[in-house]
Amino acid sequence: MANSLHSNLRALPRATWRIGALLLCVLAWHLATRERMNLGFITFQNVPPPREVAESAWSLVQSPLVLQHLSASLRRVFIGFGLAAIAGVALGLAIGRARWAEDTLLPPLEVLRPIPAVAWIPLAILMFPSSEASMVFITFIGALFPVLLNTVHGVEAVDARLVASARSLGAGRLAVFREVILPGALPSVVTGLAIGMGTAWFCLVTAEMISGQFGIGYYTWMSYTIQNYADIVVGMLFIGVLGMGSSALVRRIGQSLMPWRAVQEKRA
């Protein structure tokens, strides 16, 4: 009977498992806030319960300000991410294929990479004439390096025997790049783009908290300043859902560019 139950559980769709996991998290949240749990290192005494957060979320959805907040954040994220995608992929392909690019471009980029987005905010405010441009720049910086490094690793991971085989068949440098390097590096590029999208949201929210007037990050920070705790959680959940959805969109577009991967998964 135990084996039969295990088989039935494994037969459930993956979507059911994922929805169930989310519901369990909400249930744990409800129980922790209802019992006002205090574990010493973490306390739920002042955390708003799920019902209160749901009511605040419904109030925000009905408010005319929600479109202003969402449109401002989405515009900043997609502009910054789009610029980072173009720059990161182009630089990654050059660094991964050309030694001169690796020697001249990679060292300064490696120096800039560990600098957190928060540290860029004062300088971005000084460099750009508008707060809007500075927030887009912060988003760009946050998304750039995951895209760049994953592209470099994807190019370097292409099997050298495939390149040699293509050249032995008479392929030129452009043909090798188009037919071997790009398809071989594309899975890593898509992974970097998906990670970069999530990082872009993280950096944008940080920038909006400091210099924004509209946006989900600004809404979350203002809720904290007026001690509206339920709205803080609402802002956090909006950020999580938008980040998850945009990263899933990037992965879906990437999968459409790699039809051979779908064939391989079906065979497996």
Report on this model:
Helix content is 83%, strand content 0%. By secondary structure, the protein is mainly alpha-helical. The protein folds into two domains: 2-34; 57-267, MetI-like (MetI-like fold). α6 (117-127) crosses α9 (173-211). The longest helix has 39 residues, at 173-211. The two termini are 30 Å apart.
Task: Give me a quick take on this structure.
It is built from twelve helices and no strands. It has 268 residues and is mainly α. It has two domains: 2-34; 57-267, MetI-like fold (Orthogonal Bundle).
- Low-pLDDT runs of 5+ residues are none
CATH class of the largest domain: Mainly Alpha
Overall geometry? globular
What is the CATH H-level superfamily of the largest domain? MetI-like
Radius of gyration over all CA atoms, rounded: 23 Å
The pLDDT mean sits at 85
Question: Which SSEs are present, and which pair or pack?
Answer:
Blueprint lengths: L1 H10 L2 H21 L15 H13 L2 H33 L1 H14 L4 H11 L3 H26 L3 H9 L4 H39 L4 H10 L3 H28 L2 H9 L1
Helix pairs in contact: 3-11, 4-5, 4-7, 4-9, 4-10, 6-7, 6-9, 7-9, 8-9, 9-10, 9-11, 10-11
